[in-house]
Every structure is written in C-alpha cells, then in structure tokens.
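Lab notebook, design round three. We kept the backbone fixed and only want residue identities now. Task for the bench partner: fill in a sequence for the structure below.
Input structure tokens:
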C-alpha cells in the first residue's frame, strides 16, 4: 500500500482500474516522486495493441484512476515490452522520494 497525499492507494486497485479500461495491457509500474511539497504518482503502462489513439487511451485511464482512487494520477504509455517482467512476484512500485 502507498500513501499519496493522505490517500491509501493499493497497487491492486490501480490494476483493477487499468484492466477495466479496454486497450491497456496488464503490465504496469507505479512511480512515486516528490518534486515539490507533495507526493506525485505516475502509472507507466503498456497499451494492449488495440490501435487506439494513445492520447485518448491515456485520458480514459487517468479518468478511471481518478474515479477509483480520488487522486489525479498521471498515466504514461510506454512501448510494449518495456516494463520489466520478473519471475515470481512482480515489482510494481518504484519509490523515488528522497530519504
């Protein structure tokens, strides 16, 4: 579980939101950063290859995440195959906050 701006965010909650939007693959990674006084959450995900306009897909994913979590979460679509795969438990969270 992550706490971002006082909101509990579970990776499984993010996964459910992504998979409920057609066009997103089940491969994603959460990036937590603190560029200013508040934490920011970005979701990197791979498109499912549906041929949908990437801008439209990103907008739909961001809206679904906002509806489900109450947070504004930035979605970055990455090239298929670029999110690391692992044997066993997947590493879904990258915490880049200082300290």
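Proposed sequence:
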């Amino acid at each position: 579980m992550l706490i971002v701006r006082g909101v509990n965010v579970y990776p499984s909650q993010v996964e459910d939101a992504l998979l409920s939007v057609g066009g997103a693959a089940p491969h994603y990674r959460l990036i937590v950063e603190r560029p200013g006084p508040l934490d920011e959450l970005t979701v990197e995900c791979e498109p499912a290859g549906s041929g949908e306009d990437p801008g439209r897909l990103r907008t739909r994913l961001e809206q679904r995440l906002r509806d489900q979590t109450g947070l504004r979460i930035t979605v970055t679509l990455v090239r298929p195959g670029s999110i690391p795969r692992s044997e066993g438990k997947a590493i879904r969270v990258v915490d880049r906050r200082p300290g």
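Keep this in mind before ordering anything: Helices lie at 11-19, 54-69.
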